[in-house]
Each structure stands twice: as structure tokens, then as C-alpha cells.
Design goal:
single chain; 6 helices; 2 strands
């Protein structure tokens, strides 16, 4: 015979929301059942539930920062085509891929060739009449696929 399902009271829901832990409600019944099955202490249960929340927050924070930065989710190192006909310093690429700079608390700056784009199409739209705009202005287009050179 299985243990009765955990009941999450409205008071508990309200308290979790008040302390900004409302997202715990999605996994709380499962975690309560696991705690009963494994006979976890209160401290062990609390550690389990809070570690779930930290993991969830880390994941959503990373997703939000990537979305705000305009990063393409498909552009991941795991998907890098090492057989592509481009030139790059393999040793530098392997060093970056190892992420040792993260462990060392350092930063990495990946630069590729800058691409200069003529701004003539903007002149036809009246952008050239904006204050501070000159006819010799050039615009730097962001590099979409970082290449270590």
C-alpha cells in the first residue's frame, strides 16, 4: 500500500509565493513522496528541495541572459563543425573549449574579422538626416559565428 499523496495547502502555497519560492510547488509533491520513501530527515529534505530550486534558477538565469544578449541557442560549441573549410588556430580553440579560463576566474574575448557595411540604404530612409550622422559613416555588423583566428 502506497503512502497517501502529499497535500499542499493554500497556506503553504501562499507562504512559498511570499518568499519567492512558488516554483517549488511543481516538484514538491514528488519530493515529499521521495522524502517519505527514503525516510529523509527534515534537513535532508530541505537540502533536496532547495538544491532543486537553485538548479532551476541557474538554468532560467542562463537562458534569460542568453536571450537578452541575442544569442542563437543553436550556436553551441558542441555543434561546432570542425570539418568546415575555415581556418582557425586549433590549439587556441581547444584551450577555449576546455573552459579553464572560467575556472581561473578570467575572461575570454573572441574576435573575428570586422565586416564593414556601407550605410547607403539608410540614407534612402532618411536616417542620414539624424543629428550626428555623417555621409562617411560606416556601420559595424556583428560577427554571427565567432571564429578564433
Amino acid at each position: 500500500m502506497s503512502a497517501p499523496a502529499a497535500v499542499i495547502t493554500p497556506e503553504l502555497r501562499s507562504l512559498l509565493r511570499t518568499v519567492k519560492l512558488g516554483q517549488l510547488m511543481a516538484t514538491l509533491p514528488e519530493r515529499l513522496a521521495l522524502a517519505r520513501a527514503r525516510d529523509l530527515s527534515h534537513a535532508e529534505f530541505l537540502e533536496l528541495v532547495l538544491s532543486d530550486e537553485v538548479t532551476r534558477r541557474d538554468a532560467t538565469s542562463a537562458e534569460r541572459r542568453a536571450r537578452q544578449a541575442g544569442l542563437d541557442p543553436a550556436m553551441r560549441l558542441e555543434h561546432f563543425d570542425s570539418q568546415a573549410k575555415i581556418t582557425y588556430d586549433r590549439q587556441v580553440f581547444d584551450e577555449l573549449f576546455s573552459l579553464r579560463f572560467v575556472q581561473a576566474g578570467s575572461n575570454a574575448l573572441i574576435m573575428g574579422p570586422s565586416v564593414m557595411v556601407n550605410t547607403a540604404p539608410f540614407f534612402h530612409r532618411g536616417v542620414a538626416n539624424s543629428p550626428g550622422w555623417s555621409d562617411s559613416a560606416w556601420m559595424r555588423r556583428p560577427l554571427r559565428r565567432p571564429v578564433v583566428t
